[in-house]
């Protein structure tokens, strides 16, 4: 959303890819693949997302292009970038300070294997990552410092449905989000990096705050309460939940089988009081 709003929403000027554990350098740069031409199998270089967008940027210097990498920390980013890592250092004009030699990229982009590869000023690489995700891979500091990092604030006040009540209770999503996140930060027994355990402003969609068909209302409980029980307060459940409830099953049943503000009995008395306290 941030990228589309502030950078580019023109599909002709960007490539969007998603890193994952099986994504490799050959997917990113390109690889030799067989193709059938007039009944004859030929092996040709098939460009990956990086090479395709670099070619567009080189061919159309008056347009700005973007390579958008979603979930960059879900794959082994340094391995995926490989030698392209060298190109991330840019000079004051936005051009790579250093070049690399890659005959496949050079021939595809410049039409000659003898050209060295560099990033032009009209190509921007944007990447997103959720620091709350418990990823297998981490981004080493050498890789991170070659990016301009920007924190996207978790601001419930900007959520366009923050004032919508949760099911039939008098508690809004904004109030619930604020109280729970404050408790996550202040819990003494909370896990390390508790900041990353907070509920995002858009952790749920607006529809999950509504009672479903035939009176069904378990979607909020299954999405939000399950996360709080299994993850955010896994080591300190009494800091949020009523200790009369000993399992997630009991929490979900207690919430779904009650009505109105009685649903909040699953939380300890301090939390329930804060939830029902009028907003300032």
Notable traits:
280 residues; alpha/beta; three-stranded parallel beta sheet; two-stranded antiparallel ribbon; 5 strands
Written account of the structure:
It is a single chain. With 280 residues, the chain is an alpha/beta fold. The strands form two sheets. The protein has a three-stranded parallel beta sheet. The longest helix is centred in the C-terminal third of the chain and has 15 residues. The two termini are 30 Å apart.
Q: How do you describe this structure in short?
A:
With 280 residues, the chain is α/β, with parallel strands linked by helices.
Number of strands: 5
Largest sheet, order of strands side by side?
A: 1-4-5
Shape: elongated
> What's the average pLDDT?
90
- The succession of helices and strands, N to C, reads HEHEEHEHHEHHHHH
Helix tally equals 10
Structural Rg: 25 Å
Low-confidence stretches: none
Described by strand count, sense and barrel closure, the largest sheet is:
3 strands, parallel
DSSP strand content = 5-15%
- Distance from first to last alpha carbon: 30 Å
How much helicity do the residues have? 25-40%
Structural class: alpha/beta
Topology:
Elements: H1 2-6, E1 14-18, H2 25-29, E2 30-37, E3 40-47, H3 49-59, E4 65-70, H4 77-81, H5 103-110, E5 123-127, H6 141-144, H7 173-186, H8 218-232, H9 248-256, H10 269-276
Parallel strand pairs: 1-4, 4-5
Antiparallel strand pairs: 2-3
Helix pairs in contact: 3-5, 8-9
């Amino acid at each position: 959303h941030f990228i589309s709003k502030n950078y580019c929403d023109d599909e002709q000027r960007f490539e969007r890819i998603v890193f994952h554990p099986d994504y490799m350098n050959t997917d990113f740069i390109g690889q030799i693949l067989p193709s059938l031409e007039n009944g004859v199998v030929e092996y040709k270089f098939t460009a990956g997302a990086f090479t395709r967008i670099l070619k567009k940027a080189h061919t159309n210097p008056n347009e700005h292009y973007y390579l958008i990498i979603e979930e960059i920390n879900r794959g082994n980013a340094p391995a995926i970038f490989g030698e392209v890592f060298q190109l991330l250092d840019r000079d004051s004009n936005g051009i790579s300070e250093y070049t690399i030699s890659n005959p496949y990229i050079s021939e595809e982009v410049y039409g000659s294997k003898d050209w060295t590869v560099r990033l032009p000023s009209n190509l921007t690489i944007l990447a997103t990552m959720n620091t709350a995700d418990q990823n297998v891979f981490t981004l080493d500091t050498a890789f991170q410092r070659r990016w301009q990092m920007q924190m996207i604030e978790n601001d419930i006040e900007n959520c366009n449905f923050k004032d919508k009540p949760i099911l039939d209770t008098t508690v809004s999503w904004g109030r619930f989000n604020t109280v729970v996140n404050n408790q996550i930060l202040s819990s003494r027994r909370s896990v390390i990096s508790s900041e990353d355990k907070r509920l995002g402003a858009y952790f749920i969609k607006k529809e999950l705050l509504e009672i479903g068909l035939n009176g069904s209302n378990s979607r909020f409980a299954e999405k939000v309460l399950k996360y709080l029980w299994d993850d955010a307060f896994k080591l300190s459940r009494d800091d949020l939940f009523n200790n009369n409830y000993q399992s997630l099953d009991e929490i979900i049943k207690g919430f779904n089988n009650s009505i109105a503000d009685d649903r909040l009995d699953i939380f300890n008395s301090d939390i329930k009081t804060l939830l029902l306290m009028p907003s300032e």
